[in-house]
Write a structure and sequence with these properties.
single chain; Tetracycline Repressor, domain 2; 2 domains; elongated; transcription cis-regulatory region binding
Length: 191
């Protein structure tokens, strides 16, 4: 198994265990066991459990941001906004454990929340901000829109709605969830 494959397996195991039990309760032994490797492999690849978490957060947020950027690429601003909202729903649907980890563990006591917040903003929320800025420039959204706050609000709203949908309404079609979110956005930020 290559180092990349080993790291992927460790990331998957860590995401699952941390989502199930929390960071403090998930041991390196359990992470290694679930990944099918030795405990030393975790330390060889990451140095510590905290370094594993940091790398895991960076890895997941980078993938999340790439999904959002890819969705918006080449589209008109309001279409890009709709595509980004849909991409966030899809990503969370496919990576629900990571979304739970993102919410729960970045707020945990002793966590480096300012660093985690910067990472999340730079890799994901700023994608939403870029789409909103384009829409403002095109005249599709109010000229006085506070893009930074709006980007955080859109990202956070979709994240929490997606987790609610996946947990409490899993049979509800994603298209309905997406349509409701877009109705809310159109009613509040369009010109």
């Amino acid at each position: 198994m290559s180092r990349t494959e080993t790291r992927e397996r460790l990331f998957t195991a860590a995401i699952e265990l941390i989502a199930e039990r929390g960071f403090a309760a998930a041991s390196v032994d359990e992470i290694a066991g679930r990944a099918g490797c030795a405990k030393g492999t975790v330390y060889y690849n990451f140095g510590s459990k905290n370094a594993l978490f940091t790398a895991l957060l960076e890895y997941g947020v980078e993938r999340f941001g790439a999904a959002l950027r890819g969705a918006a690429e080449g589209l008109a601003p309001l279409d890009a906004l709709s595509a980004v909202v849909r991409a966030e729903l899809v990503f969370i649907g496919e990576h629900e454990s990571f979304a739970r980890l993102l919410i729960a563990e970045t707020w945990r006591a002793g966590g480096d929340w300012p660093q985690a917040a910067r990472l999340i903003r730079e890799r994901t929320i700023d994608v939403v901000g870029d789409v909103l800025r384009s829409a403002v420039a095109a005249g599709d959204l109010r000229a006085d829109l506070d893009v930074g706050t709006a980007a955080s609000a859109v990202f956070g709203m979709v994240l929490l709605v997606a987790l609610d949908w996946r947990t409490l309404q899993p049979d509800r079609p994603m298209d309905e969830v997406h349509a409701t979110l877009m109705d809310l956005l159109r009613g509040r930020i369009t010109t």
